[in-house]
Design brief:
The complex is a heterodimer of chains A (about 130) and B (about 325). Chain A has about 130 residues and is mostly beta strands. Chain A has 1 helix and 11 strands; from the N terminus they run E-E-E-E-E-E-E-H-E-E-E-E. Chain B has about 325 residues and is an alpha/beta fold. Helices cover about 45% and strands about 10% of the residues of chain B. In chain B, strands 6-5-4-3-2-1-8-7 form an 8-stranded parallel β-sheet. In chain B, helix 5 runs parallel beside helix 6. The chains are: A mainly beta (about 130), B alpha/beta (about 325). Chains A and B meet through strand 3 of A and helix 1 and helix 3 of B.
Chain lengths: ~130, ~325
């Protein structure tokens, strides 16, 4: 229902660490009409130019705290609030090279009243900014 | 002579989700927008517009009450969620559910709400267990009767039987007017077309739904017509939609605590495309309904890819329609 707003425009940038680019990050919003505790965010699947990023290469930061997707499974207090821009970091050597890339995010959310997890999907053409 | 309407105008802030999500409106802006169109009853979803819930400080509640005074608004209903799937691989136990009910009923009481909306999937057994908590806070629990449920659905009938058996004033219903969807939303149909569905099949499904054709036939026919995945998905929408008789509102009036005035598209002429409020309001008046008609705009998700969303204008039009249909405004 908020799929088209999941990947925030103009937030994509490479992440330098000790003089090397270790990945890239972007702002992301929840594809649902309310916030959720992180334990109910089952998956954040990132694909770049058709290449699926392994789950253990994805980090999620919200409210000043950072988690692996596995760690999120047992976070019962921290929440991803409605409309809040979280940061998704993808650990990928050299990050995003200059030029346009196709970035896809699929959020899988475990919602009590749905028989199956709900999914939100957003695909955008992005360029890594400074 | 017909007595003056006692129906009260309200808004679920759910209606303004698009603007809030994009940070074009704050919680206070949403309350102010509702007040501006005369809809003074405020329904809220804590997990949508009250970040930090369930750990809200007293200062939040103080500010909430200041807003209510400032805008002349009244808290009506808190929409509880009950995340039974909080833990991976298992559902909440009954005891854990009661902790959540306590949390939500206490929050509703602190807001000043008289009603908590309970999701329709919550079982009668669980709601029955929560009755003493609701009585303690004097907040009524209303099961949301949301499509494809309707008053005569066996699950809702079990809720009604349980509420009757317990004889409590704190267990009833919050019907969502989406159970009176006479026509599938045009805004949803048009979005399917933009995504790549076949116009003539979309139209067939709309006509078949309105004619009351059983969903299974519509889905089968759509496949026979060579429908693509989107066409079939649209046909399957018939399964999730329902047109039930508005007179049920009159018949079940003693159990109706609050109403979600669902709508998808208010037209320029002041009518709603899918839901016949001109049949709903007389049914409410016949039962002397004196609770809130709480706007629940849900068209944004169908138009946001192609059109500007103006939830404030949509809600304003809905309340203009309610007044035209004779609903009371404060002071009348």
């Amino acid at each position: 229902m908020f799929d088209r707003y999941m990947i925030c425009e103009n937030t994509v940038r490479n992440v330098p660490r000790e003089g090397k680019v270790v990945g890239f990050e972007f702002g992301a919003r929840i594809a649902y009409y309310r916030g959720l505790g992180l334990s109910m965010v089952e998956d954040l699947a990132v694909t770049v130019d058709g290449e699926k990023i392994p789950r253990d290469r994805v980090r999620f930061s919200v409210g000043g705290r950072s988690f692996t997707l596995e760690e999120m499974e047992t976070q019962y207090e921290d929440r991803w609030e409605f409309g809040e821009v979280a940061t998704i970091t993808v650990l990928k050597e050299k990050g995003l090279p200059p030029g346009e890339h196709t970035l896809e995010l699929v959020e899988q959310l475990r919602v009590s009243y749905m028989p199956f997890p709900i999914q939100g999907r957003d695909t955008k053409k992005v360029v890594a900014g400074p | 002579m017909i007595a003056a309407s006692q129906i009260k105008p309200g808004v679920s802030l759910y209606s303004y989700q698009e603007e809030y999500f994009l940070r074009k409106m704050s919680l206070e802006d949403c309350i102010a927008a509702a007040a501006r169109c005369g809809a003074y009853g405020i329904e809220s979803i804590a997990e949508q517009m009250m970040p930090g819930f369930p750990n809200l400080p007293d200062s939040f509640y103080d500010r909430w009450h200041e807003w209510m005074a400032k805008y002349g608004t009244v808290p009506t209903c808190h929409d509880a969620m009950l995340d039974t799937k909080k833990y991976k691989g298992r559902l909440l136990t009954d005891e854990e559910c009661m902790v959540e009910f306590e949390r939500d009923l206490r929050h509703a009481a602190k807001l000043g709400c008289k009603v908590v909306r309970v999701l329709c999937m919550v079982s009668p057994e669980i709601v029955a267990q929560a009755v003493p908590i609701a009585e303690k806070y004097d907040v009524k629990m209303g099961i949301e009767v949301h499509a494809p449920y309707h008053f005569d659905h066996p699950w809702i009938m079990r809720h009604l039987e349980t509420a009757q058996r317990l004889g409590t004033r704190h267990y009833g219903l919050v019907p969502d007017m989406g159970i009176f969807t006479k026509r599938l939303p045009r805004v949803a149909r048009d979005r399917m077309e933009r995504l790549g569905a076949t116009p003539r099949i979309l139209d067939y499904v709309c006509e078949a739904y309105e004619a009351g054709v059983l969903s299974e036939y519509v889905i089968f026919e759509t496949k026979k017509m060579g429908g693509n995945a989107l066409d079939v998905a649209w046909a399957e929408q018939c399964r999730h939609s329902v047109y039930s008789p508005p007179k049920r509102l009159t018949e079940y009036m003693p159990f109706i605590f609050h109403i979600h005035a669902k709508f998808y598209e208010m037209l320029e002429d002041g009518t709603e495309y899918s839901i016949p409020y001109d049949k709903i309001i007389p049914a409410l008046e016949a039962g002397r309904y004196d609770g809130y008609l709480s706007s629940e705009y849900e068209g944004n998700r169908h138009i946001q890819d192609a059109h500007a969303v103006d939830s404030v204008e949509q809600v304003r039009r809905q309340h203009a329609m309610f007044r035209r249909l004779g609903c009371g405004v404060r002071g009348q």
